[in-house]
Structures are given as structure tokens and as C-alpha cells.
Design a protein that fits this description.
Blueprint lengths: L1 H4 L13 H4 L4 H9 L7 H21 L22 H32 L6 H52 L6 E3 L2 H10 L5 E3 H9 L13 H6 L3 H18 L3 H16 L12
Parallel strand pairs: 1-2
Length: 284
């Protein structure tokens, strides 16, 4: 409707636009922001439409003399090495910091003016200042959105190549044949099997263990309840059980709600189930 009735003209200045019409300058930026959030269509098409809206908004703002920013182009976000240059990165970082500080100051002014805008009789100068600040805020937002759009386009462009590389790696891994190995209990069995299967690697349990975890099991995954540790220390299970009981007692002493509930449920269950009542199979 704004386009049909011709509210805006390239030959006008911002001072010539009526205060009531200034807010309509925001329409392309708001449409671009909404379109970027679409998820039910082709992503490349969504990004193209959003790019058009944001560029149209920035172009119109330049025509009315509200800003003199350089509208970024997708060519600036190519894979050119100049974009990875240290000086270029530092310059961009400084620009972002300066823009961030200005945005914070602008947001404070907008918040203060928004309170005045909620009153019944608002002065026209306040309205005009409020709308112009919103437009300037959206100029910065549009520049950031365009940067995000161009970066996302690069990612979408590279995704087929990355998928192809991943599939090739997966295919190469799947093609590698599994190498069988015979593990024997002792050296005697190793010699016996070695005569019958000369082409298959044969090793004892100790040799396999040393190969996998290193001498002395230094690289073995740590596990406090592993069978290896149980075998080396028969009292380990009893020690762990005592630690668990102490922990339960500590929780009960500190009125831990879960521990108290668990203890009450266990007492109730023991009252209703006599010891050994569940093991009555084949006992008549």
C-alpha cells in the first residue's frame, strides 16, 4: 500500500516527509527480519528475499540522507584470503566495538522517548526524533543481518562439498578389512594355534592386554568397579559397599529428602515381605 500510493520519492529529503509517514520507512527492514525466520521453504530463496528487503531499506535511507553507510555486497564475503588478513580482521573488530557503543547509547534514548510516546498528547518533535532513532537503530541491525546472510550463504554453498568429503571418508573406512586375531590362554596354546593358522596374528591374553593398554595397564580406562581391580584387590567390593552405606547414613543425618524417602520405602517393603519369601521355586 505504501508503494501504491507513492508515499516516498527519490527527489525528497527527510525533512520533507511528514512525521506520521516517517515510520513507514521501517517496513522493508521489518519484512526482511521476519522473512529470515521462515523455516518452511528453501533456505537459499529465503536469504535472497531477505537480502533484497535489507538492501532496499538501506538504499532508501541513503537517498533521504539519513545515513551514508556503504551497503555490503556478497562479493566481500568470498573465500578470498584478504578477508582472513589480520589487519582486515582488526579493522572489522574495531568497527564492531564502535558500533556496539553507539547502539547502546541509541537504545537508552529510544527507551526514554518510548515513555513519552505512551502519553496522550505527544509533541511532534518527540515523535519525529523517536522514529528517526528507530530507523538509525535498524540501519545497524540491517548491516548485521546482511553480514549474517552472506556468511550463511557461504556455508550453504560449501555444505554439498563437505557432505561429499564425509561420504568419501566413510566409504574408505568401510572398505578397510577387519584383521582377525586369535587370543590364547597361554604360550602353549599360542604355539599350537600358530601351526594351524600361520597367517593370522596369535597372542596370549597377557600380550593382548599389554598391546591394548600398555605395560602395566597404564592406559586402561579408569573404573573403580572394574573386574581387573576386583581381581587385584578382593576387599575392594566390601570397601565400596561400606562407602556407599556411609554416604547413605550421611544423607540421612542431613535430612536428604531422597535418602529418607528411599529408606522409608525399604522399611515398608521389608514389613510386607518376609526375608526369603521370593525364593520359593521348587520348594513346594
Amino acid at each position: 500500500m505504501v508503494n501504491q500510493i507513492g508515499i516516498f520519492s527519490k527527489n525528497e529529503d527527510i525533512e520533507e516527509i511528514p512525521t506520521a509517514d516517517i515510520k513507514y520507512l521501517l517496513l522493508p527492514a521489518l519484512l526482511g527480519s521476519v522473512v529470515t525466520k521462515y523455516t518452511c521453504a528453501n533456505r537459499n530463496e529465503i536469504l535472497d528475499i531477505s537480502e533484497i528487503y535489507f538492501k532496499d531499506f538501506l538504499k532508501r535511507c541513503k537517498e533521504y540522507g539519513i545515513t551514508d553507510v556503504i551497503i555490503p555486497d556478497s562479493s566481500e564475503f568470498s573465500n578470498d584470503l584478504s578477508n582472513n588478513d589480520i589487519e582486515y580482521a582488526l579493522l572489522k573488530r574495531q568497527e564492531k566495538i564502535a558500533r556496539y557503543k553507539l547502539q547502546k547509547e541509541m537504545e537508552k534514548k529510544i527507551d526514554n522517548l518510548r515513555v513519552s510516546m505512551e502519553q496522550l498528547n505527544v509533541d511532534e518533535e518527540i515523535k519525529r526524533e523517536y522514529y528517526l532513532l528507530l530507523i538509525k537503530k535498524w540501519i545497524d541491525t540491517s548491516l548485521e543481518e546482511l553480514t549474517s546472510i552472506y556468511n550463511e550463504k557461504l556455508i550453504l554453498k560449501q555444505m554439498p562439498l563437505l557432505k561429499d568429503q564425509k561420504s568419501k571418508v566413510t566409504e574408505e573406512v568401510s572398505k578397510k578389512p577387519l584383521k582377525p586375531v586369535i587370543i590364547t590362554r597361554n604360550e602353549l596354546q599360542k604355539k599350537v594355534f600358530g601351526l594351524g593358522y600361520p597367517s593370522i596374528p596369535i597372542m596370549t591374553v597377557d600380550e593382548f592386554y599389554d598391546q591394548k593398554y600398555g605395560e602395566g595397564g597404564q592406559n586402561m580406562p579408569s573404573s573403580k568397579n572394574s573386574l581387573q581391580q576386583m581381581a587385584e584387590n578382593p576387599e575392594l567390593a566390601q570397601t565400596e559397599k561400606e562407602k556407599e552405606e556411609e554416604e547413605e547414613e550421611r544423607k540421612l543425618d542431613h535430612d536428604d529428602s531422597n535418602a529418607l524417602k528411599k529408606a522409608r520405602e525399604w522399611d515398608d517393603w521389608k514389613d510386607d515381605h518376609r526375608r526369603g519369601c521370593g525364593n520359593r521355586k521348587n520348594m513346594g
